[in-house]
Amino acid sequence: MLRKSDVLGVRVIFLDKDRNAISGLSYALEFCGRSVEGKTEADGLSKRIVTDRASDKVRILIERLDGTRKELAFVESGYGNKLVTTVSESIMVTAKTEKHPVSKASPPKKKDPIVPAFDPNTKQPPTDQKKDLGPVSTPIKTPDGKPATQVEGDIPDLDLFLEKYVGGELSEEDIIAAAKDLKCEPGLIFAIAKQESSSSSFFKIGSRTVPKILYERHWFLKLTRPNKKAKSPYEEKYHDICGPAYHLTTKNKKKELIDRTTGSAPLADDIYGPQGLAQYKRLVKAYQLDKDAALQSCSWGKFQIMGFNFKAAGFSNVTEFTKAMSRGDAEHMKAFLKFAKSNPTLLSGLQNKKFELIAEGHNGAEWKKINPKYASNLEVFYKEYIKSK
Predict the structure, then answer these.
(1) 14 phi and psi, to 5 degrees?
(2) Domain end: 56, 71, 87, which one?
């Protein structure tokens, strides 16, 4: 017989805007007429509470600087041991206020230009070799002796695994040529490309054009385990980038995502999070912990080939693969052709127009648990291509 503690546990992780754990944050969890208070641990986690019923509501509050409380969320306990992820709109840094030296200069006038203590255009060097993730605050003084705080963030050197974008989206001729090479219909390659990256396979981070990725934390967990029975050295401290997989299951006659390990229902942000910049934030943090595992834990580009498939895609290591993926769609197609030829299931699905085989070949045997509509989507996009001709 299961105890309440086995199925009705709730815990909260508090992250800042840059997805760093917020430690020492005063919080309160109100539920079932009770209140549990405390301060978050170094990994941003709250205490674990146990509710009475799955339908019980848990109110999550944090303490403001003035001592008042702010409600962050109101969640249902549900079954399983739920980990609720909360992400702040601000970046959290540690700083100490000090007295400024008395200035003999006259107060500035309204028309006087504002001169920053440091040049805001100075490029901060990458921090790939930091011992721990998150911002590091150091008390310093400005050139004129005023106290200030210098904050060193997590800034990776993207040049280590990306190259300059050269441009060029796939054309109709490219798709036809690829289909001829694989001995299949062009509409099938069009369908995979649309399923994996419906619009452009690149986007901008600042002035830099980078390939679209999807960071999958369960692969980082698998790839950083010394063996199948051992734990990853990062799963207890970095829950946001190293954690269990999720899959679809039927509960109360509804299909929903649950944690494979605990059976809990995660929030959307626990699964993959928003597209674009948020994916790179996860990647660059993982990259500072384990470079190869981080790059292998992402799917890349037009056809969203997983990094751990770098050999099947024709590369000797994952860094060469990611650099190629950063150059343009032409490289994505080259990688896909080699990947398809090295994958009997995918190749058979393409050559025999079997949508479920294509889905299995591209996503693995458990593709239905990840996206049960994948095969039917391919068929819809294939018919869309045929109709357009």
Answers:
(1) -110, 120
(2) 87
